[in-house]
Amino acid sequence: QFIPWNINHDYSIEKQLDYGARYFHLKLCIMGDSRNDGEEGSSQLQDLSKVVHNHRGYTTQETLQDFIDTIQQFLDKNPKDIIVIGLNNIHFQQDTDDSNITEEQLMSLYTAISYAFGNDNTIGKNSIFISQQELLSTNLHDLVIEQGKRIVLFVKTTDTMDLAFLENTLQLIPSSKGLDENWDDAMSHGNLTAAEEWLYQDIVTHASSSSNSKNNNHTATGKHKFYTVQANPNHADDIAVYPNMYSNMNTKGETTTPKALKEWETPLLLNLGDIVARAQQQTQHLHINAISTDFFDVSQPLEIALRLMGISSSS
Fold first, then answer.
1. Which of 109, 141, 237, 267 could form a disulfide with 46 if both were Cys (CB 3.0 to 4.6 A apart)?
2. DSSP 3-state assignment of 157?
């Protein structure tokens, strides 16, 4: 069971989909090797029932296979929808350093995911996945209705990975090439004021459709990358903004000290719409593709998205 500081959603995947979520930033932990347990001559495809969700070292009972089954069921019922998935935080077992995962493990995982979505016999031909070129050049009607493309999958890569196979055969998109999802120490040091200011600056810098300077190391998204607002700050357990976050859970009696992640980050989540609106006033034209955040009932990303598009939430 997750402790309060490690819970960042109250809604199941099904409820998030029903609410309007179409982008999922997954943090995964591989708990076991291939389904053939390394037998000589095996296909070495990762067993997706041994891949679970992970947050701050705690893992779920729900598996990646469960997630894929849920997405497939949703897409079957909603033939005009597209789902975008980001796989950039992947760990092996309880190793907290995601840089230690091997290229072989990643490719085994990605190929298994492709097979799980029904591409086992026609990888790269009648794929359900949308390539980066298609994402940039083809309208959604043609992708979904004419070609049956339903999923955009951004994936973590290594310097030596075979990107040609990844992009052309599996039709997955390297996050380094197609995803603009940023993070800063300001989001993980337990200071919500600093986190809010960084979020505002990130949106102004990366979501402004008018600023696309090649001289900027963090080039504004424009039409070349899928820009995601990553609004999910962490409380630091080694800084004295509050007492140690795990100690807070055991604080007895009436206290203003937050005892859970939701309680602690609620002020920022409530201000998220205002942060985006302030950035919109500053730049006039924002190009935001997704909002990745916690606790939908507080942050209300769907309502923020509708306002950005000039659509009333009551429509």
1. 109
2. coil
Is residue 65 classed as helix, strand or coil in its secondary structure? helix
The DSSP element (H or E) to which 27 belongs, if any, is strand 23-30
Contact 235, 190 (CB under 8 A): yes
Compute the CA torsion angle 221, 225, 229, 233 (nearest 10 deg): -110
Q: How far apart are CA 307 and CA 297, in angstroms?
A: 17
Q: Residue 183: CA atoms inside 13 Å, Cβ hemisphere, count?
A: 11
Can you tell me the distance from the alpha carbon of 108 to that of 102, in angstroms, rounded to the nearest whole number? 10
Tens digits of residue pLDDT in 189-210: 889 999 999 999 999 999 986 4
The dihedral of CA 237, 239, 242, 244: what is its sign? positive
pLDDT digits (tens, 9 = 90+) for 45-69: 899 999 999 887 778 899 999 999 9
Residue 302, phi then psi, degrees to nearest 5: -65, -45
